[in-house]
Design brief:
Blueprint lengths: L1 E6 L4 E7 L6 H5 L6 E6 L3 H11 L7 E4 L8 H13 L7 E6 L1 H13 L5 E6 L2 H7 L4 E6 L2 E8 L4 E5 L8 H18 L1 H15 L3 H21 L19 H10 L7 H18 L5 H13 L12 H9 L11 E4 L5 E4 L4 H11 L1
Parallel strand pairs: 2-9, 3-4, 3-5, 5-6, 6-9
Antiparallel strand pairs: 1-2, 7-8, 10-11
Helix pairs in contact: 3-4, 5-6, 5-8, 6-7, 6-8, 6-10, 7-8, 9-10, 9-12, 10-11, 10-13
The structure holds nicotinamide-adenine-dinucleotide and zinc ion.
Pathway: Metabolic intermediate biosynthesis; chorismate biosynthesis; chorismate from D-erythrose 4-phosphate and phosphoenolpyruvate: step 2/7
EC number: 4.2.3.4
Main location: cytoplasm
């Protein structure tokens, strides 16, 4: 088991990572004498709910099983959670546990943030994406018909418990989508970690416990460091440290929007976005062609897409990238690289190079 602390301005919380941690959830939770409620989804419940309820000394009625899927990440579902907690007379000393992927974590976190003006919550992420990304950093919320994650709050968990064993039941595509975010951390902040990923990718893909634990640990550590510098993404008008976490995401969001959020998983779109960001960084002369090629090769080796969907044009990319929330005052800002592990946010780059990248990929 590995453990690290996320150190924030006014509090800190532990992230514990390892195989089989769920069995000892009660010990890690440190919630003696407090009432716990748990939310999960309809895919995770048949796999892990009984085990986790037993580990936490909870009964079936302490769990609420929500329908799985991004389309249920809505205000209506959060309202169900709030109604349920009120109906159970959970008071402000209660603790809400999120058992599931990023959808459950974001919704439970949001419900905890606004229930009686805020109660404690614990993240038990069961997807790789949730273990390396969504469970860390305190962003919670739901989608609105007008946009993803448009309603939400910052609310930090009091504990994150990432059990690598839970990943064994994850569909392969979901695993790879998480790997894309792991590769992102290496590319944006840590060239040694990137090198390690080049060496250990095959172990990760077969869910080797040590490799997974190390990859999740380092990803969380890098994210936590960035989040601690810019807890509410408020620095530099949104172009501060936290924006670096969006490497590959502006290209990726254009792909997700183009494909209507149904065919491509977020991580798959980000994977292609990473490759495109590396290509542009190389065209600008900010990163060597050789390093850009290493980025492409690692993403491809993971079995992730390195090309946008057929038929997407440079004009469509520009149009959709212009709608990305990272576009400030009409100026397109991108996260680019000055080398592997050296991401920078820039609105000041040669637009002809961007055009060349878009033409190269479409
Ligand atoms: P998800 O929660 O929908 O999980 C993906 C699928 O895997 C679902 O069908 C789920 O039921 C299933 N599943 C979960 N754990 C499983 C397991 N162990 N075995 C088998 N199946 C399992 O999606 P996700 O990829 O985990 O998270 C995506 C969400 O996270 C998005 O809504 C995104 O906006 C959000 N997100 C939030 C942040 C943040 O900072 N808060 C960051 C990144 C992403
Ligand atoms: Zn992402």
């Amino acid at each position: 088991m590995k453990s690290l602390n996320v150190e924030l301005a006014d509090r800190s919380y532990p992230i514990r990572i390892g195989a089989g941690l769920l069995a000892d959830a009660r010990q890690y939770a440190e919630v003696e004498g407090r009432r716990l409620k748990l939310v999960t989804d309809s895919n995770v419940a048949p796999l892990y709910l009984t085990h986790v309820l037993n580990a936490l000394n909870l009964k079936e009625e302490d769990a609420l099983v929500l329908p799985a899927g991004e389309e249920h990440k809505s205000w209506a579902t959060v309202e169900r959670v709030l109604d349920w907690m009120l109906g159970a007379r959970l008071n402000r000393d209660g603790v809400l546990v999120a058992l599931g992927g990023g959808v459950i974590g974001d919704m439970a976190g949001f419900a905890a943030a606004i229930y009686q003006r805020g109660i404690d919550f614990i993240q038990i992420p069961t997807t790789l994406l949730a273990q390396v990304d969504s469970s860390v950093g305190g962003k919670t919320g739901v989608n609105h018909p007008r946009g993803k994650n448009m309603i939400g709050a910052f609310h930090q968990p009091r504990l994150v418990l990432a059990d690598t064993t839970a990943l064994r039941s994850l569909p392969q595509r979901e695993l790879l989508a998480g790997i894309a975010e792991v590769i992102k951390y290496g590319m944006l902040a840590d060239s040694d970690f990137f090198k390690w990923l080049e060496q250990r990718l095959d172990d990760l893909l077969v869910l080797d416990t040590d490799a997974l634990t190390k990859a999740i640990y380092r990803s969380c550590e890098l994210k936590a460091r960035i989040v601690a510098q810019d807890e509410r993404e408020s620095l530099a008008g949104g172009a501060g440290p936290r924006a670096l976490l969006n490497l590959g995401h502006t290209f990726g969001h254009a792909i997700e929007t183009y494909t209507g959020y149904t065919q491509w998983l977020h991580g798959e779109a980000v994977a292609t976005g990473l490759v495109m960001a590396a290509d542009l960084s190389a065209r600008l002369g900010w990163m060597s062609a050789k390093d850009a090629e290493r980025c492409t090769r690692l993403v491809a080796r993971a079995g992730l897409p390195v090309k946008p969907p057929a038929g997407m044009t440079p004009e469509q990319f520009l149009e959709l990238m212009g709608h990305d929330k990272k576009v400030a005052a009409g100026k397109l800002r991108l996260v680019l690289m000055r080398g592997i592990g050296l991401a920078v946010v820039s609105g000041d780059f040669d637009k002809d190079a961007l055009q060349a990248t878009l033409e190269h990929f479409t």
